[in-house]
């Protein structure tokens, strides 16, 4: 099935390329049973994530909003499953998929996902019915404890290819951030926000990692 580009109006639209983010309107599952749009997530929000194979739910938490661009538009790949769930990611964002020809789960770029791959949902691997490319306003990049985010019932990674290393490597080098987050909230209480909140743009912490991680982990 070919990939189609969704067009709504015949006018020039400026948008960002190369960012690794989620669409702000997509929803995550809160541990208390509710849902919250990614654009409304706050540090400390308790959320559900899936383990890599999708067979187990994990109690997770929002640690930091790494990138916040409410007023900018970006090019999104929107994946619709055979049971009508969908998730939108920018081109360089990572997502776990089941590769049927390799019989294993891999984490790949959103732009590399094909109609032959399967998305990971709770307890199952689901066929992709359609892949569309859309320009949407508002993109965000939350950091979680696990490195995953359960979005619209679909498992995703919180990392992108902008770090130029694997998601597992990025998760490893972010370990000091997670330790500091838990330590400060243990000392000062769960209402304490360990890191400065950035209203718009890229947070200094991921900016530092994106600049230095490739050099230090170039095996």
TrEMBL record:
Domain Hint, chain residue ranges per copy: 19-123
Positions in coiled-coil regions: none
An individual GO BP term: protein autoprocessing
SUPFAM superfamilies for this protein: Hedgehog/intein (Hint) domain (SSF51294)
Superkingdom of origin organism: Eukaryota
Protein's UniProt name: Hint domain-containing protein
Native source species: Didymodactylos carnosus
């Amino acid at each position: 099935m070919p990939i189609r580009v969704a067009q709504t109006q015949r006018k020039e639209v400026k948008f960002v390329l190369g960012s690794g983010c989620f669409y702000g309107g997509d929803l995550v599952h809160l541990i208390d049973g509710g849902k919250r749009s990614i654009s409304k997530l706050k540090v400390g929000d308790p959320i559900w994530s899936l383990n890599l194979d999708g067979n187990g739910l994990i109690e997770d938490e929002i640690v930091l909003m790494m990138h916040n661009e409410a007023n900018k538009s970006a090019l999104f790949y929107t994946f619709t499953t055979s049971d009508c769930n969908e998730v939108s990611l920018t081109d360089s964002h990572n997502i776990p998929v089941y590769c049927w020809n390799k019989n294993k789960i891999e984490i790949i770029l959103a732009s590399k996902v094909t109609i032959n791959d399967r998305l990971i949902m709770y307890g199952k691997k689901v066929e992709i019915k359609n892949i569309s490319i859309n320009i949407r306003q508002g993109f965000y990049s939350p950091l979680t404890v696990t490195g995953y985010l359960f979005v619209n019932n679909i498992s995703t990674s919180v990392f992108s290819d902008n770090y130029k290393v694997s998601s597992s490597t990025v998760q490893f080098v972010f370990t000091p951030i997670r330790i500091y987050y838990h330590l400060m909230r243990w000392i000062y209480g769960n209402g304490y926000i360990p890191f400065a909140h950035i209203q718009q743009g890229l947070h200094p912490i991921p900016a530092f990692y994106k600049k230095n991680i490739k050099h230090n982990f170039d095996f």
